[in-house]
Design a protein that fits this description.
binds threonylcarbamoyladenylate; binds magnesium ion; alpha/beta; about 15% strand
Length: about 350
């Protein structure tokens, strides 16, 4: 299959392309599209055969449910039963990088939800995504547009690396802003529960709801996470990655010491770190083994660059990687969650 990649700069001017994409979705085909978090691989969320194509193309386990993307409040009601908790969150955070788990309606096929009685609903804050959903006039089921086990794509180019030749169309809306997948909140439990940390932080949710839990399965090794997808091994770079923690003021020194040790052990070490740490290492490592993920403490910048940085080293000679940690509060919790998955147990 030939994959067309179409740049969308202006929705009004490129109405014909958006209509074509919406028509493909309605006909049961797959279209990759940008959201504010990461690129999604979309299909008609009410069509079990179209959903099956997503699982086949990604190589995704069939018990890992898809989330439905909507463009209006009316569309949410076709797919889910909105309760009081969800109502509050929708008012404040939608559209935005948030997915709500709610009881599903009959219209949602069990193939989409991995047989669960619940469904994930997300209203993306991206004009291309919203125009596409409105044109398709159905909720769009969309996981991140990567092959299973690869990093979530944050550009059309990263999407094409995984999906070229496998789907008819990729809409190119430029780089995504957030760079990490949406926060998932289970609104079916007594107290709202975060199943996956993201840019809508625990602190932000608590301000609206008062009380918010974090799924204990995210941190405990003897309890399965409630979001089926969080139990699978996520993207990890080819070279083993170790997270380095320490006082910000000593970070440069700590890295210099570790790099020297690893180099004398014959290792080719790659470093994913802040601009400040990379500057401290500039004499110790060649530029191609340093990836500057952003200014220290600038969490939005670091989140936006994280997946590109992790996958960058697969194209270098690095045989071991060091990554600079951030404080695990606010957006830092989501960054450390993804870094932790990339590092495994290191
Ligand atoms: O930002 C995002 O959420 C991106 C963009 C494309 O919107 N999408 C995304 O989808 O990250 P995906 O499929 O890669 O991750 C969805 C996660 C999976 O971990 C899945 O197990 C979980 O949501 N999930 C979906 N439906 C669920 C449900 N009914 N109950 C619990 N977890 C659910
Ligand atoms: Mg994913």
């Amino acid at each position: 299959m030939q994959t067309k990649i179409k740049k969308i700069k202006n929705i009004a001017e490129q109405r014909a392309t958006i209509e074509e994409a919406g028509e493909l979705i309605r006909r049961g085909e797959l279209v990759a599209f940008p959201t504010e978090t990461v690129y999604g691989l979309g299909a008609n969320g009410f069509d079990p055969k179209a959903a099956a194509k997503i699982y086949a193309v990604k190589g995704r386990p069939s018990d890992n449910p898809l989330i439905l993307h909507v463009s209006s409040r009316a569309m949410i009601d076709t797919a889910a039963i909105v309760n009081e908790t969800a109502e509050k969150l929708l008012t404040i955070f939608c559209p935005g990088p948030l997915t709500l788990i709610l009881p599903k309606t009959q219209a949602v096929p069990s193939e989409v939800t991995g047989n669960l009685p619940t469904v994930g609903i997300r209203c993306p804050d991206n004009s291309v995504a919203r125009a596409l959903i409105a044109a398709a006039d159905v909720p769009i089921a969309a996981p991140s547009a990567n092959l299973s086990g690869r990093p979530s794509p944050t550009t059309a180019l990263m999407t094409a690396e995984d999906l070229d030749g496998k789907i008819p169309l990729i809409l190119d809306g430029g780089a995504t802003q957030v760079g990490l997948e949406s926060t998932i909140v289970d609104c079916t439990s007594e107290t709202a529960t975060i199943l996956r940390p993201g840019a809508i932080t625990r602190e932000m949710l608590a301000e609206v709801l008062g009380d918010v839990r974090v799924d204990p399965g995210l941190t405990s090794s003897d309890q399965a996470p409630k979001a089926p997808g969080m139990k699978y091994r996520h993207y990890a770079p080819r070279a083993p990655l170790t997270i380095v923690t320490g006082e910000a003021s000593e970070m440069g020194e700590i890295f210099c010491r570790r790099v020297t040790e690893l180099k004398s052990a014959g290792k080719t070490v790659g470093v994913l770190a802040s601009r400040e740490t990379c500057a401290a290492l500039s004499g110790a490592l060649p530029a191609e083994l340093l990836f500057n993920y952003g200014e220290r403490g600038n969490l939005p910048q670091i989140a936006a660059n994280l997946y590109a940085g992790l996958s960058y080293f697969d194209r270098t000679a690095a045989d071991c990687l060091l990554a600079e940690s951030v404080d695990a509060v606010g957006l830092g919790a989501a960054i450390m969650n993804r870094l932790g998955k990339a590092a495994g147990k290191n």
